[in-house]
Amino acid sequence: MILQALNDYYQRRQRSSNPQDRLPAFGLEEKEISFVIEIDAKGRLVNLADTRTIEGKKKIGQRFLVPQGIKKTSGVAANLLWDTAEYVLGVDTKGKPERVVEQHAAFRARLEALPEDALRDAGIQAILAFLKNIDLKQLETLPAWPDILTTNPVMTFRLHGDVELVCQRPAIVDTTAQTIEEKPDGICLVSGIPMAIERLHPSIKGVWGAQTSGANIVSFNLDAFNSYGKSRGANAPLGKPATFAYTTALNHLLARDSRQRIQVGDASTVFWAEQANDLETALPDLFGEPPKDDPNRGTDALKVLYRAVQTGKFTNGSATDRFHVLGLSPNAARIAIRFWETASALNLAKRIACHFDDINIARAPHDPEHLSLFRLLTSLAVQGKADNIPPNLGGEVMRAILEDLPYPATLLNQAVQRNRAEQKPNYARAAIIKASLNRLIRRTHNEKEFMVMLDPTNTHPAYLLGRLFATLEKIQEEASPGLNATIRDRYYGAASSTPVAVFTTLLRLHNHHLGKLSKGRGVQMERLVGEIMGGLDDFPRILALPDQGRFALGYYHQRQAFFTKSDTPTTNNPEESK
């Protein structure tokens, strides 16, 4: 199903009336080329153009349409009309001169093996002349030469005065796009037609954490993986056109500048629809962290999502369009499928909206209105660093959102543990706890769901204990303004896990603090303490981990109630806050 859906996406893009929307035709691919060697018709060097631009801390080459690269192994194998400096120029950059001689010879042999029509092309004639009389001393005088020796960059050729590369000239494109007539040796799983089966599939690049040279979804490189005497690609038979289509489509979706991918923890997630649809480019804005120059992008996308759910209509696309979401993670030289979900665009939009409803919780004015998935996950990580997000958690959370399942237990566990480590529940962790508990409650129906803001009617003991702790802290803060540390800094961990060991002491302290308040304020706060304690029979000896989450919510809700006017509730639901 995955390969079929990717193949269909490739065909959809090829049917576009806009050439800019089309993906590379059969036999071609987009490749980052760092340097372009400009030569005249007689093969003389004119210029060495550096196409790289600085992105962040790296220099990134311009992307060009070139003949599809071959799958590299430890052996010598050259690409057609483009490759690294060692192949193209025969210059040794790694201290292996004998191997470089073989590489350069392979590059020339690949050119000389072109059909007669292609060999007669002026561009090919110029390249052959250049390679025959290559002058490394002239190249060594160029400013970029030290960089070439250091990085062994990818290079190709262009005739001086031309706009396109030599490999983009019509004679070359026609040659590379031709399918080789081979005897059918299997039935393609995608097309169902007998044809020559692809033995080795092109690499998939762009999966976070995978090898930079790429990895494979379909790969059988050991005898233990083979069945019924078949080897390599014959174990999962795909014809050459289908193989090219699915790998080209997936590499396009995973590209660095793709608007149809997000990184969720260790899971690289891509998405596409059968037909062009708003959701295809909305998901990165919904789940990703908004750019600094457009901080409202996520909130705007969320408003569009809620509008689509309410009306059942999309500005671009139909509610019934089939939508696909694919999560990938690295596994040595292969790519593991973390999750795969297919649903109508409207159903998927409803599930995503449900997630944002679940994490909707009262917030302070300075808190962001839109909680991205990245912000949720980093709130669970040590020091708030993405590198410290627990393995596999991002993928499991994404799967729960897409399939409308309970969030993984690890999510709630991590939020509670992080609260204890930092001695407080923050906005993002409170949202996680509310969402996790409500999805569990929704399936057991044995408890009232938690609300966006403080719920005075919730009588769960753990929730009441959290409210009580927040109230006692507030009394202390008003009694002794400017404190560097409150009871939260010293007692939160113990109060949320072993209440009986702490609350007796805290209640004795609170009598002392009440005496420092004005008479009216003291009566008001004492009444609130009495109302909360009226719902408690006694102080539990131990709170289980889910109840520690309820404690955190009670504490968070009560704190927000102290600082939020009742007539101006603050939520993170853009539809409610209009």
From TrEMBL:
InterPro entries: CRISPR-assoc_prot_Csd1-typ. It comes from Halothiobacillus neapolitanus (strain ATCC 23641 / DSM 15147 / CIP 104769 / NCIMB 8539 / c2) (Thiobacillus neapolitanus). NCBIfam families: cas_Csd1. This is CRISPR-associated protein, Csd1 family. It comes from the Bacteria.
